[in-house]
Fold this sequence. Notes:
Low-confidence stretches: 144-148
Helix content: 40-55%
Radius of gyration: 28 Å
Amino acid sequence: MKNKELKLIANTIRGLSIDAIQKANSGHPGLPMGMADVASVLFSEYLNFNPQDTDWLNRDRFVLSGGHGSMLLYSLLHLYGYDVTLEDIKNFRQWGSITPGHPEYKHTPGVETTTGPLGQGLANGVGMAIAEAHLSRLTRTKTKFSDKRSKLIDHYTYVFAGDGDMEEGVSHEVCSLAGHLGLDKLIVFYDYNNITIDGELTLSSSDNVRKRFEAYGWDVLEIDGHNYKNIKKGIDQALSLEGKPRIIITHTTIGYGSPNKAGTSGVHGSPLGTEEIKLTKENLGIPLKDFYVPKEVYGLTKKVVDKNKKKYNKWNTLFEEFSKKHKKKKALLDTIVNKKFDPALFDWKAFSFPEKIATRSASLTVLEKIFGNIPSLIGGSADLTPSNKTKTKEAIDFTKENRKGNYIHYGIREHGMAAIMNGIALYSGFIPYGGTFLVFSDYMRPAIRMAALMGLQTVFVFTHDSIGLGEDGPTHQPVEHISSLRLIPNLVNFRPMDAAETVIGWKIAIERKDGPVSLILSRQNLPVYLRRRGAFADASKAENGGYILTQDRNYQVILIATGSEVEIAVNAKKELNAKDIKVRVVSMPSQELFEMQSRTYRNSVLPARFKSRIAIEAGSTSSWLKYVGDEGKIIGLDHFGASAPYKVLYEKYNITVDNVVKTALDMVK
């Protein structure tokens, strides 16, 4: 495409962006104006996409990590044929529109991930590049006339990132790992405009970005982001390189084209204003009409879309040949993309467990059975593999040399791990799981929240779930963490009491397609109650989140517990029974799942009329108030722990059978 045509597209993007932001009286015009030239080149000449098939497996992924510049993306989607109309552009940031303030996954056609919290999109891009490398290797085949291998999956992940992304700590974690893994299908454009909201970048940073990324093991290029010849040269060079991810340091002027605000922080996060818009349009040669799109631009972008459809059709022909000639690989691809699995894998009665076993160890037993039978699974841990017990015998390390690997050593990068997992889940078909200690969920919370917001099937494996981890002390003993995680909408937390409930927890994690699951697992050994027929309920009832584990007729008190504290409740029942007190014990591994049940079911487990209730959990008591009411009691921990053997800690903090019995007796009296 000629430079003057690219300039016309870029200026149209600028015009749409400033008009939409002005109409909304809210938004960030600086990024769209500054990166419009690079975006017009990328979309017109390099990016492979089909706006009529936004789920095309071999499309290039485009991530706008600086989600505040969303009008850049919405303008591109509108101009290049996606189902984003001019009316949608005019309704930017309005109730019910598909053009919200920041791009939202599943909300707007063509948006690959929800971006807003800086650094998350960049991290998602790393996850997408990992997924591409893995799927490409799994589906690679030898050609008939050559030893070279034919690639069914062969595309790039492009990321636009800015100063904010680079300053956020998560970018250091994920870019370091990307360099280590040599993710050479990842190309990042760093919008280097030297401006943040507060003012010039030098107020807060003097990093040498080139040296930083060279140290990570990236190839580093630099371009003038407003020179079309230079932009093309930079992208061509990036595409010619192999073996490393690439970052293109893109020198731009924020708010490019604005006579009085370009290059200043004033254009970062506020509308230009009526007078400045008039001056800007005059400066750029844009007609003063609001939301103006020249017919020539639609014609130019249609040619791009038509060209891409030819590539799309060619790939579909390749896919048909692949399907006929490589039926085993095609079956594997179908299994991954459609997340197929045999429900019989989660028959808890088929598992053999010892009398007592930590739920983290039970989790590994489950993984040993399902991992090789569910190829969608990609595991990992933040340098705690032996403690989290997340790696099976069949797992293969994903490395620079072995893309077929399905287990990622994330290193001590908890936040990066979670955000990369989200990118893997976004890619299509894969179910990523990653392990760390529950206390480190603090480091992961922004990415956990994004997984819940996007409805991603990511599985967070949290071990060492309470003061039960013992001697490591209060820095590692989670107290408030379970209650904190319960506050995140659309996150299902599952804290199993024994090995059988752990099987059910994994079943829920694999079956749930519309949001993440956290499995909260113990370090200490716990009795396996649900293996004993007659005395206790069927383990499948754990799928309801809360259920009657065991009870006496005419019970006088209800004990509600989760995880390791169910053992305390069961033993307290025995002692209370010896004192002629009748008891119902409720296991509640997941408050979220319990709340999803019907009112009738919930009332059958916790009758509204029955007020004598005691909740037991070795953590913050706040999330149990709604289950015990004003007349009930909670035995928990609303302060930090200490360094000591775990049995001593439970005793010192009165999370004991004796305290439950005493509390119940006082309540019954």
